[in-house]
Structures are given as C-alpha cells and as structure tokens.
TrEMBL record:
<feature type="domain" description="ABC transporter">
    <location>
        <begin position="4"/>
        <end position="233"/>
    </location>
</feature>
<protein>
    <submittedName>
        <fullName>ABC transporter ATP-binding protein</fullName>
    </submittedName>
</protein>
Length: 233
C-alpha cells in the first residue's frame, strides 16, 4: 500500500506565455510502499512542483502519476486526500474551530471517535495541549492563527488521518524550539512504514532516508541512499 509511480512526468509553468518556465522535463521513478524519499537540490529545481503534482494541488500536464496502480487523474481529489497527508509551509486552514481543522476530512466524527483516532496514533495529549493552549477567540477561528500554530494543526490533522502517503516540506521554521522537538518525534513516527516524500533541509532526514533524489536541471540528477551518494563524490 502506497506505491507511487511517475512515468515521464513533465511540468511547465505558464505554458504558451512569455513567462513560460519549464521545470520538470522527464521524471520517472517508483517509490515502494513504506519508502522515505528525501528530495534535495537547489532552490527552484522543482522539488515543490513534484510534491504538488503528487498531492494533485497541480494538474498533471505530461506523463502519468499513479498510486497503487490507480492513475491520479482518475482518482477524485476527496479520495486522494483521504489517502494522503500533506504538510507544507502554507498549511490549509479554514474558518472553523481548531478542532474542525484538525478533523478535516472527518467532520462528521463524534467526540468519542476523535479521541479514539487521536489515541490510536498516540496524539491525544498533543492535540489536547494544542486545543487548550488557544484562547476562546482562536478556538473559534482557525484562520486567525499564526504560521507556527497552523503547522501544529496541520501536523495533528496528518497524524489523525493516518495517510498511506505523506508529503512533508521540512521548512518548519515557524515552530519554536520546544514544539519543534515534539513535532520532530511525531514526524519520525509518521514516516515509519509510510511512503513519504520529504523536501529535506535537515541532515538527519537526508541520512535516514531510504533514498535521496537530487533534483536538478529538470529531473532526478542522482539517486541513492546517503552512503551511496557520498561514495560517488
Ligand atoms: P524548489 O521547490 O526546488 O525550490 P519549485 O518547484 O518551487 O522549486 O520551483 C521550480 C521553478 O518553478 C522555479 O524556477 C520557480 O520560480 C518556478 N515556479 C514555481 N512556482 C511557480 C508559479 N506558481 N508560477 C510560475 N513559476 C513558478
Ligand atoms: P481548493 O480546491 O479548496 O482551493 P486546493 O486544492 O487549492 O483546494 O488546496 C488548498 C490547500 O490545501 C493548499 O494549501 C494545499 O497545500 C492543501 N492541500 C492539498 N492537498 C491536501 C491534503 N491532502 N491534505 C491537506 N491539505 C491539502
């Protein structure tokens, strides 16, 4: 469960205009179920574009992407979001309560179901802390939250959803040091046994990844684990 395949995927921003930018030329790979793939490479190389295609945040222009053999263009966005957890810098927060935001995709869940879901991933204390830490105003209006608070909510949401595929942009710079530690522990638990794509900034993530993709010049320039890539140098 959670096998992700790219076949000759290409992507161009603003195609056919003066601003046209070809970012991905011809990207092919198979991510095995449970594999953690670290995406590294220079700014502007196309790492974010790759993960935005997997999450269907962008439409696929050229080539095919599939999850467990199902072509992504045949899968509805809603069913895709049930299988996929996405944590990016601009996390999706809507004008609901903190709890509603955490329970995104499970809005009809009862209080008991939410507590059970939280306990199943050892996130119960984390989520209670999160909820109780906000004043009434913030509790009522998720959209008024700081970037760091949004990241924590997105993290709690991802934990609860127990996704098959996890997408993580590691630039969690807005989280304070203490919370950062909490989140890092949770992230390690989330990565285990789950196909994951991490836009990696931390050396520890890069070292622990099953495979590293060096993204550059429109494609995967090099791939291998940390030891393999170090030997090539
Ligand atoms: P990375 O994540 O590796 O830094 P991105 O995938 O964000 O790279 O960006 C790849 C290239 O696409 C960059 O040259 C960037 O300027 C361009 N780009 C990214 N987003 C857009 C956009 N919305 N419109 C036009 N160009 C974009
Ligand atoms: P809408 O169609 O409602 O505008 P978008 O596809 O534009 O939704 O996505 C809105 C936000 O949701 C984006 O910031 C995106 O990063 C985030 N997002 C996309 N996929 C997921 C997901 N599977 N889980 C959580 N957030 C997601």
């Amino acid at each position: 469960e959670g096998r992700v395949e790219f076949h000759h995927v290409g992507f161009t921003y603003d195609e056919g205009t003066e601003a046209e930018t070809k970012v991905l030329e011809d990207v092919s790979f198979v991510a095995q179920p449970g594999e953690t793939i670290a995406l590294v490479g220079p700014t502007g190389a196309g790492k974010t574009t790759i993960v935005n295609l997997i999450s269907r945040f962008y439409d696929i222009q050229k080539g095919n992407i599939s999850i467990d053999g199902y072509d992504l263009t045949d899968v509805t966005i809603n069913s895709l979001r049930r299988q996929m957890g996405v944590m990016t810098q601009d996390n999706f927060i809507f004008h609901g309560t903190v709890r509603e935001n955490i329970m995104y995709g499970k809005l009809d869940a009862t209080e008991e179901e939410m507590i059970a879901a939280a306990k199943a991933v050892n996130a119960h204390d984390f989520i209670m802390k999160l909820e109780n830490g906000y004043d009434t105003e913030l509790k009522a209006r998720g959209a008024g939250l700081s970037i760091g608070q949004r990241q924590l909510i997105a993290f709690a949401r991802t934990m609860i959803s127990m996704p098959k595929v996890l997408i993580l942009d590691e630039a969690t710079s807005s989280i304070d040091t203490h919370t950062e530690m909490l989140v890092q522990q949770g992230i390690q638990a989330l990565l285990k046994g789950r196909t994951s794509f991490v836009i990696a900034h931390r050396l520890s993530t890069i070292k622990n990844a099953d495979r590293i993709f060096v993204i550059n010049h429109g494609g995967i320039q090099e791939s291998g684990n940390h030891n393999e890539l170090m030997q090539k140098k």
